[in-house]
C-alpha cells in the first residue's frame, strides 16, 4: 500500500518571525517489510531538511485517498516532533495525538 502524508508546521527562523509551512512525505516500500519507511518518517525528514519546527496537524492517506492511522513507531516519532496536541486527521475525524498515544515519553523523559 502506498501512503503519503502532509503536515503544516510552525517554525521560528533565526530572524524570530514565526512562519507556517507544509512538509510532505511518502512511504518507501521494501521487500523486507521491516525496512519500509512510512510516510511519517520521510515527513519528519522533510521537516528537518526545510529548517525544523513543530508539527501542528497531520494527514496520511492511502493511494485511494482513504485516511490512514499512524503505526505505533510513527506515533512515537510524531510525538517527539509535534507533541500530544498534534492534530491527526483520520477516518474518525481529527484527534489529538495524545489520544492515540497516551502516556507517551519524549526526549525529556
Summarize this structure briefly:
With 109 residues, the chain is α+β, with helices and mostly antiparallel strands. The chain is built from three helices and six strands; from the N terminus they run E-E-H-E-E-H-E-E-H.
- What is the chains' assembly state? single chain
**What is the overall number of helices?**
3
> What overall geometry do the principal axes of the alpha carbons give?
globular
Instruction: Output the radius of gyration.
Output: 14 Å
Give the terminus-to-terminus CA distance: 34 Å
Beta-strand percent range: 25-35%
**Unreliably modeled segments:** none
Mean pLDDT: 84
Which properties best describe this structure?
30% strand, alpha+beta, 6-stranded mixed sheet, 109 residues
